[in-house]
Amino acid sequence: MTALTALDLATLRINGPRLWASLMELATIGATPKGGVCRLALTALDGQGRDLVTRWAREAGLTVTVDRIGNIFMRRPGRDDSLPPIVTGSHIDTQPTGGKFDGNYGVLAGLEVMRTLNDLGLQTEAPLEVVAWTNEEGSRFVPVMMGSGVFAGAFSLETAHAATDLDGRTVKDELQAIGYLGAEVPGQHPIGAYFETHIEQGPVLEDHGKTIGIVTGVLGIRWYDCVVTGMEAHAGPTPMALRKDALQVATRLMQQVVACAHRHPQADGVNHGRGTVGMVQVFPNSRNVIPGRVTFSIDLRNASDALCDAMDADIRAVAARLAADSGLSITITPVSAYPAQPFHADCVQAVAAAAERLGYSAMPAVSGAGHDAVYMARLAPAGMIFIPCKDGISHNEIEDADPAHIEAGCNVLLQAMLERAG
Ligand SMILES: [Zn+2]
């Protein structure tokens, strides 16, 4: 085999039609009448999907190993096979009304990189691997991102094995039933760097007319419950000046949840702040009673923990001011928090450089949704490549992507992996 260093990276391209054909063939397993895919984790259909992908991997000369949570690793040796592998992948389980591309694209793009290197007769210095993580979607079994989560030590193998579906079947039994309860201990598998290609699952790339999203990280999330307490009173006899109307104060604070998201851009001026009130309850919820109490949810997100902290302080200060002005009590109680996960600068740069070499329009992007790459970023330098999906729609049978974008994202993946693997 030829040494990669002798070649100009910029001339290398994957085979787009072959990748597209593989995506369409995998999508026939669990195909729904509306053009989507229903292939829930660890069902017989998931087993058939796994069988097809691993058959393709073996046909491409890859070595297939499976760990005890059913993660599948498909390996192409390097010139120095003792180096930690450069890994790519995603998941092939879907939502009940899932699409053809979510997850499947990341796995099959990795396989296409391997097939392309076979065509070119190229061997990399470090080994390359494609991974299919178990149960990313969390639809049949919780928690979500189960395979990568166990691999990264976020929760234990025993916890994952004991998770049950609505019929009481366990993950461990279902892994056994489809033949994917492997021998390898999850996590005892070195990773040199990790890349994941994925449809954006949102509308930003399409809105900007860009082909490649250079994903800089995954948003941090803060959830709160807020309670505004006033005093119920009759809507007729109580003059306006003598009311303690909890809803009027609550709606002013709700407006500030949204405004807060606009107030916290990154240092470079880009704003990934998000503020959402999604649930509201009004007591006593009666037409002719001044509301005495309002409870509502607050969901704040931003690109770094520091920005999430700043939004936290902002909304608390606004609430304190509103409480002082109105004389009503306002409490904000944290419910849960997920740290922001910035991706490694080297991986982000590798994706950006590849997109530029290939002449694709690109922009920085953040992920508002979780991905297996979030857990991998705890273990190794990691990065993600987004491509647009039609109307930003995902987790839906009508999820669609442009074959040219599918091909472009895979070309970026090829170059980014080769840059890391040498
Ligand atoms: Zn996905």
Question: What attributes does this structure have?
Answer:
about 425 residues, 9-stranded mixed beta sheet, 5-stranded antiparallel beta sheet, hydrolase, alpha/beta, hydrolase activity
Q: What does the model show?
A:
InterPro entries: Amidase_Cbmase (IPR010158), Bact_exopeptidase_dim_dom (IPR036264), Peptidase_M20 (IPR002933), Peptidase_M20_dimer (IPR011650). Pfam families: M20_dimer, Peptidase_M20. Belongs to the peptidase M20 family. Keywords: Hydrolase. It comes from Pseudaquabacterium rugosum. Strand 2 and strand 3 form a beta hairpin. The two termini are 14 Å apart. This protein has twelve helices and 18 strands. With 422 residues, it is of the alpha/beta class. Helix 1 packs across helix 3, helix 1 crosses helix 12 and helix 3 packs across helix 12. The radius of gyration is 24 Å and the shape is elongated. 35% of the residues lie in helices and 22% in strands. Strands 2, 3, 4, 6, 7, 8, 16, 17 and 18 form a nine-stranded mixed sheet that branches. Strands 9, 11, 12, 14 and 15 form a five-stranded antiparallel sheet that branches. The relative contact order is 0.18. The longest helix has 22 residues.
